[in-house]
Structure formats: C-alpha cells, structure tokens
C-alpha cells in the first residue's frame, strides 16, 4: 500500500478496516458462547476484543504514521477548497477512535459496525 497516492491509501485503509471490522464482528458472534462463559471465567478478553488488538498490533501500528500524514494532507486539501472524499476522512478518523477503546465490543449501527466500550 505504500506506493499509492495518499487518497488511494486512505480509501484502501478504510476498505481493509471495514472488512476486518466485519470479520471481527462475525468472529465475536460465532463464538458468543465461548466469550460469555469460558473466556469470562478465565478472565480473558473476548475474541472480538482480541481481534481488534491484533489488528492494532500487526497492521495499524505499522502504518499509523503514514496514515496520520495522509489524513492531515486530506484535511489541508479540504480546507484549501480542493475536492476530497470527506466520508473516507471521517471513517479513517473513526478508526483512530475505535483503536483507543478499552473493553470494546462490536455493535451494529446504521453505517455498519462500530466499536463501543470504556
């Protein structure tokens, strides 16, 4: 993903995040019984929380500096009255918010899936 323009980089990241978010939600629902009983009794995180943590460790941490620069560039272009896709910027910033949640659980919303937690 490093050899594409910043706008394409943001669009690709949003697609990867949305796909992973859907996967984490599916994983959380498929193993709901395991989450509620075994993992809770063992004082372990749910599978959805673990999936979110792994995304953060394995993918997000590796690209967060480049991602931040791409968001800053897109915001600067928007302020200078250039045409930018605001939805992509919004979803990218939302990912930053989701990455900072502790005890996050995937919840279904009108826009797709979002993470809620402490």
Structure description:
This protein has one domain. Helices cover 69% and strands 8% of the residues. The chain contains 4 helices and 2 strands. Strands 1-2 form a two-stranded antiparallel sheet. Strand 1 and strand 2 form a beta hairpin. The model has no long low-confidence stretch (mean pLDDT 83).
Q: Which properties best describe this structure?
A:
mainly alpha, elongated, 118 residues
Overall body shape = elongated
Distance between the termini: 32 Å
Task: Count up the helices.
Answer: 4
Oligomer: single chain
Q: How many domain modules?
A: 1
Instruction: Tell me, rounded to a whole number, the average pLDDT.
Output: 83
Strand order of the biggest β-sheet: 1-2
> Low-confidence parts lasting 5 or more residues at pLDDT below 50?
none
* Total E-strand runs: 2
What share of the residues does DSSP label as strand, in percent?
A: 5-15%
Summing up helix and strand content along with how strands pair, one would put the structural category as mainly alpha
Provide the succession of SSEs.
HHHHEE
Using only C-alpha atoms, the radius of gyration works out to: 16 Å
Strand and helix layout:
Elements: H1 6-30, H2 32-41, H3 47-79, H4 86-99, E1 105-109, E2 112-116
Antiparallel strand pairs: 1-2
Helix pairs in contact: 1-3, 1-4, 3-4
């Amino acid at each position: 993903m490093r050899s594409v323009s910043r706008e394409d980089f943001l669009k690709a990241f949003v697609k990867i995040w949305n796909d992973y978010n859907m996967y984490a939600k599916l994983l959380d629902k498929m193993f709901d019984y395991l989450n509620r009983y075994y993992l809770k009794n063992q004082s372990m995180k749910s599978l959805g929380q673990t999936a979110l943590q792994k995304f953060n460790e394995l993918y997000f941490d590796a690209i967060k500096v480049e991602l931040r620069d791409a968001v800053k560039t897109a915001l600067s272009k928007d302020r200078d009255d250039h045409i930018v896709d605001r939805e992509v910027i919004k979803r990218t910033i939302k990912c930053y918010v989701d990455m900072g949640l502790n005890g996050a659980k995937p919840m279904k919303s009108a826009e797709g899936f979002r993470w809620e937690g402490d």
